[in-house]
């Protein structure tokens, strides 16, 4: 007699045999008892959870010679034929290979005829989501109003691909993943029946790797028992199924915590040399790190995963933060996706695990998001300033010399270190200057300009150069002719020959800009005081005007003046806007000259 696979031999025969789907078996049994039999059912759920088996049980319950009954006898002629797939009134259709409109039209033709052997004609359409749009449309009317002795059962693993028009015509039942406990209990029952001695941990390992599917669990058990004549142990199951040993996962995790790249590369090589797959390594690493994350959060491991050494879990969970574990799991999932297309999966895995070893990466994973943003902003500002200073050093020749005093802070260092640099170079190096003696770092103790030694003219020249560096051309044009007269009591006195330049400088935008530059360069608050140059006033008073001009001062909004002058071209508007920025927004409307 030919050997029958365990998943076929142990297929459920009635609702009581269904594992892990009590909510469905109870509901269907009650519907049959009360005579509330639907004309169409939609069974959805993961593979190997009992969808097709339930469909056949329902077909037997409707066509049993003692039924319809919630407990088919599995002994009568009808039940036996359904179990053997020879019953004339049960049609099992694979939609993956019969997905076109022609197959559905044939189905519609056969629906009209009365049952041959039983009371109901049952159409089981497996993987129904594979039907084409035309096939679904052809099925709609028949599915909505089939003959009273016809029942449709649609099964799918991807219910979201089934049109809502089809779903609305069916009673939907969602099959859930079977728990590890239920799978292990069923495996114990089967191994006891077939006379195979197994360790509990061996069956637990099979149940975990079945991933919620009873059919997968029976296939794995079949594979293990076929290759082992002795007692089935956890080690034997691990070897047969290519499962990574816990010890290897623990070593890799410890190496990541210690930033030990060499140990990681060696462990990967050892795993691959035993014939284990890269994808299996990544999958089990994610499971192990999930255990660490769950234990760190709940201080227990009660979830549906295989047993691990609690001492190791506790020790390793203390080595990482929640953010680090999340990053680690995300990294292996990304690597798992990349290995499917990578020509060298080993390199992909090595890169992913080596990346997790870098202390800088691990440190950043623990920093809150707002602090990360602040760190990045500080880095950007620092880089921008360095680039600006490099340009300044290259463009400007030395104008004057100044001394930068640096005081050593570490033991055994020189008390005072002094360097003479060009002023521009000193200003650019000030934010990051470091003077080293052996391995210790000195600290800056003096600002860019010592205000006690500098005069008003030298400080003002520094401010003008900074305006040029910052490309503040309108402001530079306004103040470059001003004469610094004195610097005392925190005030820098500037003399102007033109009143409109003085008035423009006193406005808040230019004043704040200049005072900010002075503070940056001296380290002290310096207030600008603008005065008129007396010599310029005397010269202008000597000239007596021959005629008086009648003028009217009209305040004009400078934000609207450009829009109002439609006759100006683009270049003229640009010059006018620059003039407003420099001279102010008071426009003088000059009338015809008249004698006073």
UniProtKB/TrEMBL annotation:
InterPro entries with a match to the protein in the record: AAA+_ATPase, ClpA/B, DNA_pol3_clamp-load_cplx_C, DNA_pol_III_gamma-3, DNA_pol_III_sug/sutau_N, DNA_Rep/Repair_Clamp_Loader, HLD_clamp_pol_III_gamma_tau, P-loop_NTPase
Residue span, AAA+ ATPase domain: 37-179
GO molecular function: ATP binding; DNA binding; DNA-directed DNA polymerase activity; metal ion binding
Keyword ATP-binding: yes
Keywords assigned by UniProt, alphabetized: ATP-binding, DNA replication, DNA-directed DNA polymerase, Metal-binding, Nucleotide-binding, Nucleotidyltransferase, Transferase, Zinc
Xref: Gene3D superfamilies: 1.10.8.60, 1.20.272.10, P-loop containing nucleotide triphosphate hydrolases
CDD domains: AAA, HLD_clamp_pol_III_gamma_tau
PANTHER family: PROTEIN STICHEL-LIKE 2, REPLICATION FACTOR C / DNA POLYMERASE III GAMMA-TAU SUBUNIT
Protein name per the record: DNA-directed DNA polymerase
Source organism: Pectinatus brassicae
Upper classification of the organism: Bacteria, Bacillati, Bacillota, Negativicutes, Selenomonadales
């Amino acid at each position: 007699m030919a050997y029958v696979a365990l998943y076929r031999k142990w297929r459920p025969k009635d609702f009581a045999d269904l594992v892990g789907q009590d909510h469905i078996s109870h509901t269907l049994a009650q519907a049959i008892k009360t005579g509330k039999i639907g004309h169409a059912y939609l069974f959805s759920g993961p593979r190997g959870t009992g969808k097709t088996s339930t469909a056949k049980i329902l077909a037997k319950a409707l066509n049993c010679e003692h039924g319809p009954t919630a407990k088919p006898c599995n002994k009568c002629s009808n039940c036996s034929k359904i179990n053997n797939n020879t019953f004339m009134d049960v049609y099992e259709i694979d939609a993956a290979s019969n997905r076109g409109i022609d197959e559905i039209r044939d189905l519609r033709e056969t629906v009209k005829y009365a049952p041959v052997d039983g009371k109901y004609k049952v159409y089981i359409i497996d993987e129904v989501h594979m039907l084409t749009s035309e096939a679904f449309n052809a099925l709609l009317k028949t599915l909505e109003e089939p003959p009273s002795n016809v029942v449709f059962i649609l099964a799918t693993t991807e219910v979201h691909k089934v049109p809502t028009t089809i779903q609305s015509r069916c009673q939907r039942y969602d099959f859930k993943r079977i728990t590890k406990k239920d799978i292990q209990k069923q495996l114990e029952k089967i191994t006891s029946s077939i006379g195979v001695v197994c360790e509990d941990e061996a069956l637990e390992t099979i149940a975990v790797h079945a991933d919620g599917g009873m059919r997968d669990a029976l296939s794995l058990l079949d594979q293990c028992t076929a290759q082992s004549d002795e007692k089935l142990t956890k080690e034997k199951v691990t070897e047969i199924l290519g499962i990574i040993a816990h010890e290897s996962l623990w070593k890799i995790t410890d190496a990541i915590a210690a930033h030990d790249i060499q140990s990681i590369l060696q462990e990967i090589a050892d795993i691959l040399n035993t014939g284990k797959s890269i994808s299996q390594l990544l999958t089990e690493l994610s499971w192990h790190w999930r255990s660490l994350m769950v234990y760190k959060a709940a201080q227990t491991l009660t979830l549906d995963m295989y047993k691990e050494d609690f001492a190791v879990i506790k020790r390793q969970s203390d080595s990482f933060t929640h953010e680090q574990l999340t990053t680690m799991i995300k990294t292996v999932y990304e690597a798992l996706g990349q290995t499917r297309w990578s020509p060298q999966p080993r390199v992909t895995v090595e890169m992913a695990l080596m990346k997790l070893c870098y202390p800088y990466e691990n440190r950043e994973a623990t920093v809150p998001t707002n602090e990360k943003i602040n760190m990045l902003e500080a880095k950007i500002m620092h880089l921008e300033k360095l680039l600006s200073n490099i340009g300044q050093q290259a463009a400007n020749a030395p104008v004057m010399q100044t001394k930068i005093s640096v005081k050593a802070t570490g033991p055994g260092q020189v008390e005072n270190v002094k360097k003479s640099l060009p002023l521009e170079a000193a200003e650019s190096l000030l934010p990051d200057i470091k003077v080293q003696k052996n391995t210790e770092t000195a600290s800056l103790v003096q600002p860019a300009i010592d205000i006690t030694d500098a005069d008003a003219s030298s400080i003002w020249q520094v401010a003008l150069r900074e305006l040029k560096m910052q490309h503040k051309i309108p402001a530079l044009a306004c103040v470059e002719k001003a004469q610094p007269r004195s610097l005392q009591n925190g005030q820098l006195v500037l003399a102007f020959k033109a009143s409109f330049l003085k008035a423009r400088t006193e406005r808040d935008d230019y004043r704040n800009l200049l005072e900010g530059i002075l503070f940056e360069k001296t380290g002290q608050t310096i207030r600008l005081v603008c005065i008129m140059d007396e010599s310029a006033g005397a010269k202008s008073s000597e000239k007596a005007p021959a005629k008086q001009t009648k003028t009217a001062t009209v305040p004009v909004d400078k934000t609207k003046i450009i829009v109002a002058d439609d006759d100006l071209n683009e270049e003229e508007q640009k010059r006018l806007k620059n003039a407003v920025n420099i001279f102010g927004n008071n426009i003088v409307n000059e009338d015809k000259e008249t004698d006073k």
